[in-house]
# Entry
Amino acid sequence: MSQTESQILNTFLVSPSSLQETATLNTFISFFPASKRSHPDIPILYRSLQAQRSALCQIVKKNIQLECKLGMQTMKAMDVERSVLEEKKEEMQKFTMKSSALPEILKRMEEAVEKMQKEIEYLGKGCDDLLKNMKIIVGEMNDFQYDKGSLDRSETTMDGLRELIETCEELLKTCENV
# Structure
């Protein structure tokens, strides 16, 4: 509750004047029949009513304060709940927007798969070429081992060995990158 509501409730539920200001003891005594007005318990009854009225006013004031606090807590809880609902609504909107972009995402994924397949083919061809060169070099090395070639051929074999080493290093780099 706001401060204005608290003021309104206090104004209308809690009288600003005490019982003594509303009805004095003499006025209170005049409410009784003439034969009972001199009874000694009437002033005691009057003070008792004053105390009860004062206590009741205090209880009403405390209840108004409590209600104001509860009202504020309820408003805060509603604000929190409202913000949570807004967040969920935003998440749902994002999800809806993402699901509408699903065909586009699917298309991009298919393009990425095609690129990967081309890359794999390219690497496969490169590996096949490297393997072919290695087989040639190994064959030449066998020729060199059994001295089937001439000296000119040994120079070619040495070049082939160097090329084999370079090819193996390239193959290692390629394998590390994949």
